[in-house]
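The following record pairs a protein chain with its ligand, LMJFFPRB.
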Amino acid sequence: MALVARVRALLLPGSRLRGATLGRAANGGGAGARRALSHRVLVEADPAAGVAVVKFRNPPVNSLSLEMLTELGICLEKLENDKTVRGIVLTADRPGIFSAGLDLTEMCGRNPAHYAEFWKAVQELWLRLYQSNMALGAAINGTCPAGGCLLSLTCDYRILADNPKYTIGLNETQLGIFAPFWFKDTMVNTIGHRATERALQLGLLFTPAEALQVGLVDQVVPEDQVQSTALSVMSQWLAIPDHARQLTKTMMRKATVDQLLKHREADIQNFVSFISRDSIQKVLQVYLQKLRKKNH
Ligand SMILES: CCCCCCCCCC/C=C/CC(=O)SCCNC(=O)CCNC(=O)[C@H](O)C(C)(C)COP(=O)(O)OP(=O)(O)OC[C@H]1O[C@@H](n2cnc3c(N)ncnc32)[C@H](O)[C@@H]1OP(=O)(O)O
């Protein structure tokens, strides 16, 4: 289903996204701050600063399900069309888990059409974020594996909470799957080829100190200062004239974006045939069961 159709489905009577509003904040935020609510994404906009904080709230682990991807896409599109917003900070509504990555239940026991729809939505969100004209910051206030790490890597800078429990990285190989070329390219663009090769083959999840050392994040700060630091760094990015910053960003990212645009359909087909393999379904199911067993 294309984004428009998925949005329609989400707006059907009964959907909690229906009637989402952008109103004056009941509390918090500076003068004129606005809050918008959808089911899984909370937006706190501060027009005076030109910044919106986009908070993930898809319990229990902020996984990127098809619905979450769609809501995030809608929310980002709205912000892109809002002339008062020049920068966005992505964060988790509740500290602890920034995002557990792609929702594994979307990749297990479904049919090929579902896998294709899901992967298209992952591509769309990546394209929207990686090509965004806005300045994007990640305030990483929790653990950040795989697709969660990818989300943060689409941003222009990353601030990570100084908590050794919070790890970050593309750990796909540890699950028995692997990061597709555009995940890899996004990481190469951030930490370089050799560090990416090692990180991806070993499926490394870096502690804050390691992430800072390898350049996966720009700053590690006390947990209660992650959002405020991300906002203060944002003011440096917004001090640069938009057109100059945007042209530079496009120049830096265009080759990577073009690769996916050129191979978009093939990438979907490759994903569908890979994820549909019996052997891959089996490893994903075992991984999910292990996660679930912990709690039962
Ligand atoms: C030629 C081919 C070319 C194409 C190649 C394509 C290759 C495929 C690429 C696919 C890319 C995938 C990227 C991904 O993002 S995969 C997801 C990776 N994520 C993880 O490994 C994280 C897994 N989760 C955890 O480690 C932990 O949950 C946590 C985030 C550290 C949190 O721990 P905590 O103890 O607080 O919570 P629980 O573990 O108890 O989890 C609570 C419940 O949430 C469920 N859960 C967790 N993570 C996920 C997830 N990613 N998706 C769905 N569900 C998840 C977990 O099962 C618990 O459920 P329960 O309440 O029913 O027990």
